[in-house]
Amino acid sequence: MSHKAPPLPSTDPASDKDGLLMPDMVTQGSVFLDEDLRVLGADSLFYSSFNVTPEETEGRLLQELGDGQWGSSALRQLLQNVVTEDRSFTDHEVVHLFPKGVGRRYMLLHGGRPGRAAHPTALVTLGFDDNTARRNAMEALRHTEVRYRRLFETAKDGILILDAHSGHIVDANAFMEGLVGLEAGQLMGKQLYEIGLFKDIAANKAAFIELQRNRYIRYEHLPVRNNRGETVHVEFIANVYQEDDRLVAQCNVRDISLRVQLEKKVAEQGLILADEARNKDEFLAMLSHELRNPLAPIRSAMHLLKLQQTTAIDPIQRQAMDVIDRQVGNLTKLVNDLLEVSRVLNGRVHLNMQTVDIQEVVEHAVQTVRPLIDQHRHTLVIHACDQPMWVRADALRMEEVFINLLTNAVKYTPADGNIEVECHSDKDEVRVDIRDNGIGLQPQVLPHVFDLFVQADRSLDRAEGGLGVGLSLAHRLVSLQGGSIHASSAGLGKGSTFSVRMPLIVTPQPASGTPPLGVASAVNAGS
Description:
Layout: E1 30-33, E2 39-42, H1 44-50, H2 54-57, H3 73-85, E3 89-98, E4 103-112, E5 124-130, H4 132-154, E6 158-163, E7 169-172, H5 174-180, H6 184-187, H7 201-214, E8 216-225, E9 231-243, E10 246-255, H8 257-307, H9 315-345, E11 354-357, H10 358-375, E12 379-383, E13 390-393, H11 395-411, E14 418-425, E15 429-436, H12 470-480, E16 484-489, E17 496-503, H13 519-526
Parallel strand pairs: 12-14
Antiparallel strand pairs: 1-2, 1-5, 3-4, 4-5, 6-7, 6-10, 8-9, 9-10, 11-13, 14-15, 15-17, 16-17
């Protein structure tokens, strides 16, 4: 006996106007069954979707199709309800393993009575829908939500989710609960000022208006009074974004109380160090003056002794007098350096700013240091600029700078060494380089060479080193006059270069036959 049905009037599910199944629910086709759940026919979409022929399908019981996955007792019961009670069903899920690499698919089955045009003798229409993509998307979403919730709950920062229109809290993580001392249920529905994040409703409203306008607010330091009566300092960041069909504001609240405590300690220590530095400067000034007082009578007594010298003076006495005279001179130089640096540090130095030729300043400094250069048998080479280099400076103070730099070069260059003084100029500044072939500087020393009381390990006798204030004093004096000073060295044994830069000014024009102001007049004005 043949169970094949006559040709169907239509194989398009959408043409079944009287069917109980919505056409958009059937994406993989439909089969038509009799009361025994035997296949009487199917539409073309079913055959193409499942890659089967009518010969392989029609006349067979439903549970005999495929690998038997359509024969579950639950599905048979649903289909029997359609036959006996005309009770339709939808979204019954069956897992189907497709051959040829297609793999596992999740199918949703929809059953009901066929419409008049679907099949003349069938009692049941069974529609198939591939739910794999939707199921995978939902599973991915579930995993994402689980992961988000895990991060949300375990975050070591407080997180609040607000309704972006009303400002009420709709979600909070555990860290936030501990921060403000409230349970999650107590946080829900409250506004930020009610949990201590803003001091009052006006401050809360102002912040929320800014958040709605800019969709972002940030507070670097916000005190929070929590429910335990403690003040917690937090960093507060909020931004607005769309979540599904609503606009929300996410607030990230980071506890910075420990950082604030450390900042306070650092500030307190800074004040203590500032006081110590000020006390040190005052001590240096006082010490310099106290040391200077006995130096004057010592030098006077030494001068009187020299006036009374005769040819018959004892050689030992003469040698002792020379030692005293030399060491008093050294001590006077050290005390003067201390006084000078103390005045600069405390802002008590007076600058007589005038228009001067920097080359004349250098020449005067060379004349002052020349005896020391000759004493060490150094060769001095001067490369002057081909025209005056006019700068705005205090001639005496700039001369002091170059004296210090030249003296430094002499001290730290072994006997019979070479010292060069070179002038460079460009359109807006002049540079004076003082270069030696002495013992040089270590790379780690260069960043600190102008620091007060810093001396490099130059492997020379400590007596040549002084107090380490000369370079610092030179740096500060040049900076006060709008210039800069830079040190460079290729390393120990390879010499050093100190470069002084000063901004050039327009060449001064003589007025009524009077020559431009030069170094001599500047020195006289400052004396």
